Amino acid sequence: MTTERLQGAIDTLKNTKVRMTPQRHAILEYLFESMTHPTADEIYKALEGQFPNMSVATVYNNLRVFKDVGIVKELTYGDASSRFDCVTTEHYHVICNECGKIVDFEYPGIDEVESLAAHVTGFEVETHRMEIYGKCQPCAEQTTKH
Length: 146
Ligand SMILES: [Zn+2]
Ligand SMILES: [Zn+2]
Known about the structure:
The chain is of the alpha+beta class. The protein is built from six helices and five strands; from the N terminus they run ααααββββαβα.
């Protein structure tokens, strides 16, 4: 499953003028395998052993390239550093207020809200954002123990 989706992203990249490099491959692989919505810094830390000449800036630039091609989404939440998500299907995020963990979930019905918004305001609706916030299970358990 992971390899299939990774291959899809690699194929998309091949159809553009973006060159596949070992670094780019490793970053993509990490994104698709971790599924943790990592920051550029986290990706850098995970891969620096493999690529001693790589910097956080390189990771960030590569992520920007992926983003432009449309295989990666940049998630910005307030002033925290951007997190990166490999684009598969439309999905939403539930975010832990304590540890910052982001978990995916799907909820197809919300597209209707876009149609409604377009209908009542006359806007050409392009996109929407929805995030759910709370405490993840491990964090909730920790609070109850205190
Ligand atoms: Zn948590
Ligand atoms: Zn996600």
